[in-house]
Amino acid sequence: MTALRRVQPDTPHRRGWCPSLARPMPTGDGLLARVHPPLGILTAGQARAVADAARRFGNGHIDVTARANLQIRGVTEATSSPLAAFLTEAGLGDRRDDGGPQRLTLTPPLAGHDVMALAWAIEEIGLEIPGLPAKTLVAVEEAGSPFAASLAANDADIRIVLDNTAPIPGRAERQRSTIRERAAGAMAAGACRVALAGPDGLAWFACKFQEDAVSVVDVALRSLAVSGARRMRDLPATERNGLIRASRDHLVRVPPVHPTLRPHPEAPGRSGGLERGLQETHLALEASFEAADAAPQDEGAGGRTAVCGVIDLGDGGTALAIDSPFGRCGADSLDRLADEAEGLASDIHLSPSRGFVLLSSHLVGAERAQDALAKAGFITTAHDPRTAVAACPGAPACASGSTATLADAARLADVFRPFAERGLRAHVSGCAKGCAHPAAADLTLVGVAGLYGIVVEGAPSALPATQLTFEAALERLRRADPSTPLSHAFRTTP
Ligand code: SF4
User: Fold this and answer.
1) Residue 66 placed within a domain
2) What's the whole-model pTM score?
3) pLDDT > 70 fraction of the chain, expressed in percent and rounded
4) Fewer Cβ within 10 Å of end Cβ, the chain: N or C?
5) Is 416 domain-assigned?
6) Distance of alpha carbon 422 from alpha carbon 390, whole angstroms
């Protein structure tokens, strides 16, 4: 991994989405450079810049990650610095140089202003916290987001679900052209639910106002940074409970004030004496900061649900959601996507299902783009069998892999189709680490010395039932009755 080198002095003005250098990481096909589009949104020009960068400084392969970032593969020591300068020039440079998260929040595509404003406020807070672990993640979404399951699968340290906001932004909001315009301004004062990850899963709480959630996140992130733990879930339950108590105290002692927040007209402590204000604040927060009985509906759903195809936005507008097969996108495909985005006058919204969403003011345009992008190799309908299979880069891209996972996953998807129609999911993993889907799948093929360990209803790290060549595994599936459990296809005794 190369060291960061800041190219401009750090000033509050420049500290936003400011220029700095990408941080390539070693893999099997050279160095890998992560690109973190601000709030997961690229302009068509930026997408072309990434495609160009992948060709000029990498091997032309680009990963679309489950955190809605991009990875340029095949970078070398010689090309890493010019690549970083190139990305900086395109407005895609890193935000911080202390090893902390370059992008702290994950929001769904089609998120409305409330989500964007809250995510922006949290990004700003994160920049002020030294020592924040690199993988820290705060997922922010509206209740009812079609991408909720994909967000839930991301193992966030903190998850925030806004209640009573439209899951899809209205036409006027969609027409705001820049990310700053969409995220700028006052944060709405609606209620939300906040979850902190722990060793025993997510603990949900209700916050009466979104600004309370900002304060809770601030305290939680600072606690995580000083704890030495890498993830919130690594904190023992007692520490997490202390953190929750600290959040409540913090809210009581310091009524949340943030430049992007506006006071809610009913918020206590906004008028009258300080003492009375704090007392009322305390009472209100006691009422608002209660453990929520029910987590959002998608909680525990696991896996990633494909949201592909043309989506009617209800006011004459449409969106086109597509996925990259197994999270891989070539530079030429990304150029093709940029062409279609430009044709629709849309930004490119990265999705946590490892794909993209474009907006269109008319159905015909969205359908034309859908056809064009299907020809470019993207998954453009939810019925595509590739939506049922996850795969990591595997060999030769990753040094830990011994099998060609991407090619094998494409073939497996075809054979697995009858099982996918029953709602089953498969995963082809280059090794037991399971980068593409660390959780359990109905069927997981785990690469081991050129063969595959077969895990039925388990995680990649589980003990395989048997070990087969890929061809033998395919043959077992072809012969299997799709109406019977998968374990029948891979049993080791007659
Ligand atoms: S699962 Fe293993 S082979 Fe696949 S990308 Fe991760 S480390 Fe590499």
Assistant:
1) no
2) 0.81
3) 78
4) C
5) yes
6) 17
